[in-house]
Protein: Alkane 1-monooxygenase
Amino acid sequence: MLLQYLSLVWSCSQWASPAVSPVDGAGLALAVGWVGALGLNAGHELGHTTTQAERWLSKAAFAQVAYGHFHVAHNRGHHLRVATPHDPSSARLGEGFWRFLPRVVSGRPAEAWRAEARRLARRGRSPWSPRNDVLNAWAMTVLLAAVLGVAFGPRVLPYLALQAAFGICILEAGAYLEHYGLLRQRRADGRYERPGYGHSWNSDAIVSSALLFRAQRHSDHHVNPLRPYPQLRHVDAPQLPAGFVTMIVLAWIPPLWRRVMDPKVIARYGGDVTLANIHPPARDRILARSVTAASPP
Structure:
């Protein structure tokens, strides 16, 4: 996280210079977004700890990209509803990344706000209390932007917004590929089965492991969310055809993503596509294609 903020402050010093063209400034913002996204992985791990200090560090990591609500939505929303149609951060079969992105970007803060409002209500407090973890996380972003704007001038503010948007695109592309098309089945009592190893995509690529704090061992993370990342295990679970970094870039090109991943999702369910988490607008098309593929020549 130190490297994350050092790169941000140095970049602000460059953006503040009139000698930096808009094109150069935008390119630097994209580079800072990549660095920030790596810091968000550290923030994700810190958000799973039980100590207050480390959770505040998690919010500080996400403040750079105005996404401080993440740890509330992730811990108290995503981990409960993962791999179901009710989870805004579980991508559905047939849902391209650029359709998924607005759904998750709007869904996470709404989910976090509801969770915090319920928590505070149980304690007899208003959701507008300063103890609201969503509000104080957003306040950290406002404070950070204000300090950088005063220190380096208003010229840096558009670039701060650009690097934040790009960092969120990287973060949510990772979320997109982690559960694409996978679905927890309903039990006889109508409840969803517990999250298991079969409800996340994984990869054991060396580069992904080094850069992402073993986030690519995602099934073990969901089954054991409090397990420290160095102890996450490689398990018998759905495997991506390449490392997370490669698959994030592939996710940004939906036709190529579907060509690679849709057959893997269908194969995961033995050809019965009705067992997958299907994007509702694409359901008829996917079912028709499945019937055609299963018909004898």
About this structure: The chain has a mean pLDDT of 89. The chain has one domain: 2-294. The two ends are 57 Å apart (CA to CA).
